[in-house]
Amino acid sequence: MSFSTIGALVFFFFSETVFYDIQRNLLLPAVNNYYINVNESQSDIENFQGQSLWLSGDGCCDSPGYNAKYCSYSMMEISSQKIITFDLVQVSQASSSVGMEKVGFVNCMGKMADAGLSVGVMATGRHVGIRKV
């Protein structure tokens, strides 16, 4: 629903400018601070070194079908249920929107290797591109 549609329904709602001011001044800094705090606590990653990890991974695109622009690929360690790594892929980084999930998977596996983590079991959503890796 757009701001103009809400205005036509005569609902009392704050303006588009106020919405973006709140987002810029309150929401985005809070999300950014949380992200920085979580990333700075490397103790979780260090706990997994030397273990053979059981991971699950899946990609989520911004829209279904063949016209997605972004894909977020996340890997979770199964026993702790913690996200170990993730990657955000734009369609320009892949051959097509269908190939974004494979690029995200490969990037996440590269991050795991760079951190010195070994993968014992990997469960995915059976994406066609990932099956070929």
UniProtKB/TrEMBL annotation:
Signal peptide interval: 1-19
This protein's record includes keyword Signal: yes
UniProt keyword list: Signal
Superkingdom of this protein's organism: Eukaryota
Family matches, as PANTHER family: PROTEIN CBG10204, SI:CH211-108C17.2-RELATED-RELATED
Protein known as: Uncharacterized protein
